[in-house]
């Protein structure tokens, strides 16, 4: 059974810092990995999707990497801003036939002024 | 354009009552998913619809839970004889295609069973 772990569970950084969020998964037989952010009381917003054949994806200040063989992904946020404060979730798709994702429990990020 | 819409946003019900939760996906998205987010348990897959295919119900926790998707668009998740452990946020998502397509989530329905 696939298990997804995110460390740390919570993180507080001052504005402007670069930071890395970590995601690990136990079964490397994945089809893709997605990173989401969730604001309080809201649904999830898709940030980046990395297919199993890819090593990284970039969107603006965000860069996600994937090392499938070691079961790890990182989300790098450059020049953090208070608006980046949210919970960040990673999720893996192990089925290949449907996006039936297995989610991590998230990292709660606070960017302070 | 419009995102995934869910209603109601909040629902409080008494134990034993039935509830219906509604999801209106993004127009043109062929795939629709229901997930449940419980405090301390993360997100849990419930059910998946793809086009006109039979739904994947493998995540439904009991036979009190059912869902349908009419006309390939709007979906309704029904919970019969609600229990306190059903209290959670129920999230609906849709995606443009079946494979390697980002999920777009609604804001969820917060269900509280008293």
What features would you describe in this structure?
The complex is a heterodimer of chains A (113) and B (114). By secondary structure, chain A is mostly beta strands. Chain A contains no helices and eleven strands. In chain A, strands 2, 4, 5, 9, 10 and 11 form a six-stranded mixed beta sheet that branches. The mean pLDDT of chain A is 94. Chain B has strands at residues 5-7, 10-13, 19-24, 31-38, 42-50, 65-69, 75-79, 88-95, 104-105, 109-113. The radius of gyration of chain B is 13 Å and the shape is globular. Helix content of chain B is 0%, strand content 48%. In chain B, strands 2, 4, 5, 8, 9 and 10 form a six-stranded mixed beta sheet that branches. Chain B has a four-stranded antiparallel beta sheet with strand order 1-3-7-6, with no helix packed on it. In chain B, a hairpin with an 8-residue loop joins β8 (88-95) and β9. Chain A binds chain B through residues 31-32, 34, 36, 41-46, 49, 51, 89, 91, 93, 96-106, and chain B through 4, 6, 31, 33, 42-43, 45, 48, 50, 56, 58-59, 91, 93, 95, 98-108.
- The helical percent of chain A reads under 10%
Radius of gyration of chain B: 13 Å
Strand content of chain B: over 45%
Amino- and carboxy-terminal Cα gap of chain B:
37 Å
Q: Which pair of chains has the greatest number of interface residues, and how are they split between the two chains? A: A-B, 26 and 26 residues
The arrangement of helices and strands of chain A along the chain is EEEEEEEEEEE
Note the run of SSEs of chain B as H and E. EEEEEEEEEE
Q: Which structural class fits the helix and strand makeup of chain A?
A: mainly beta
Low-confidence stretches of chain A: none
- Tell me the number of helical segments of chain A per DSSP (H or I, 4 or more residues long): 0
Brief digest:
With 113 residues, chain A is mostly beta strands.
Strand and helix layout:
The complex is a heterodimer of chains A (113) and B (114).
Chain A: E1 4-7, E2 10-14, E3 19-25, E4 32-38, E5 44-51, E6 56-59, E7 62-67, E8 72-77, E9 86-93, E10 101-103, E11 107-112
Parallel strand pairs in A: 2-11
Antiparallel strand pairs in A: 1-3, 3-8, 4-5, 4-9, 6-7, 7-8, 9-10, 9-11
Chain B: E1 5-7, E2 10-13, E3 19-24, E4 31-38, E5 42-50, E6 65-69, E7 75-79, E8 88-95, E9 104-105, E10 109-113
Parallel strand pairs in B: 2-10
Antiparallel strand pairs in B: 1-3, 3-7, 4-5, 4-8, 6-7, 8-9, 8-10
